[in-house]
Amino acid sequence: MNDSEYTYYAAFIQITKAISSSIDLETVLHLIVKSICEITDSKGCTLMLLDEKGDRLEAKSFYGLSEQYVRKGPLAADRSIADTLKGEPVIIEDATSDPRVQYPDEARQEGIASIVSVPIILRGRSIGVLRLYTAVHCQFTEDDIHFLSAVAMQSGLAIENARVYEDVKSNSKKRMSSPSLS
């Protein structure tokens, strides 16, 4: 096992432990994006999920990027990450000139040079993307992609677990507040 593989393996274990120690979705997602940035020494990371219609991405958590950049405008799923939503990683080596980047001027102002997006897949379908941003032009390695893909899979499970927990909690409250049948 080389140094890169060991670092990613150790980080994956750390992220998995953190995911399993909390059921609060916001906390878990923030921990994921923060950990990825710190481990990869990247500029930023976002975790975005598809809206109910499935045509736009909404940032659910981010780290290392300005609020202004993250909230710059709607991201059309079919334009910026069509391949990612088909289950393929997408690597953008130059975020300021690649036509798949919807907001190249904003990327330049934010200091983003390269982007890699990996799908978050749940039950065989893409529900969103995990996106990593670098401040310098980067050629992402196979190890980078494997690590991000593994974390994206864990993210999908964490999202599902949090949703199930919220459903159970909500149903329990409804039962507690409804008049009992006697």
Description:
The chain is of the alpha+beta class. It has a single domain (3-153), classed as GAF domain (Beta-Lactamase), CATH 3.30.450.40. The chain is built from seven helices and six strands. It has a six-stranded antiparallel β-sheet. A hairpin with a 5-residue loop joins strand 1 and strand 2 (56-63). Helix 1 packs antiparallel against helix 2 and helix 2 (25-40) packs antiparallel against helix 7 (142-177). The model has no long low-confidence stretch (mean pLDDT 88).
- Return the domain count: 1
Radius of gyration: 18 Å
Task: Tell me the number of strands.
Answer: 6
Q: Order of strands in the sheet with the most strands? A: 3-2-1-6-5-4
Instruction: Give the termini separation.
Output: 65 Å
Shape: globular
Q: Could you name the ranges where pLDDT drops below 50 across 5 or more consecutive residues?
A: none
| Top CATH class | Alpha Beta
What is the SS-derived class? alpha+beta
